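Q: I'm writing up a methods section and want to include an example of the input and output format. Could you take the sequence below and give the corresponding predicted structure tokens, formatted cleanly so I can copy it straight into the document?
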Amino acid sequence: MSGHSKWATIKRKKSANDAARGKIFTKLIKEISIAARDGGGDPDGNPRLRLAIQSAKGSNMPADNIKRAIQKGTGELPGVSYEEITYEGYGPGGIAILINVVTDNKNRTVSEMRHLLSRNNGKFAEVGSVSWMFEKKGVINIAKESLNEDEIMDIVLEAGAEDLKTEDTYFEVTTAPDTFYAVKKAIEEKNFKIESAELQMVPKDTIKLEGKDAEQCLKLMEALEEHDDTQDVYSNFDIDEKVIASLS
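A: Here is the clean output for your methods example:
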């Protein structure tokens, strides 16, 4: 499992407090609004919106908040005009970083991202410099509980999944983007507990970090994640899970 996957798992555990949940709500509202703006307000015909709504419900967002976010996206209610941007950069130890943001002020956001990177031993990269190191994949985590790996393997592969990995407390299913929803549906139909289901930018290879580079990397990742305009941060670092837990 890549370091970023470990980081994402620890982030979910840390997000249980009210302050973190409020930040998650803000990100989800932006995602719902943009999905509705770009693909319409009907989740049945808009897979991105359907996934965003499912994520919002999984985070216990009130139904009224979801409805208003959709209406702001479709223009039924007044809302902020957002722009989606992906920044590319390098971090400690030469790791590659992709930062997906949603902003209503591009100049402010790029300036603040540049500052966060430079303050934490990172730097901006030109468009295309690091994005080729990543592939878009569907990543679905299923709680282990009492499930049998062979049974899950048969179900997800038959539905079109590419791979299944076994971790300490969950199974990680990887899919191509175009089979993500079919695999997710097959898992849901078996009533398996899905801990997370996302389309992610997954690194093709990873860079092992230790010592000071590992510490600086995690500080940079946390700083980028905490920025109000950040939706997702992806990187190709690989740090031991115990080190991540002790430093994050």
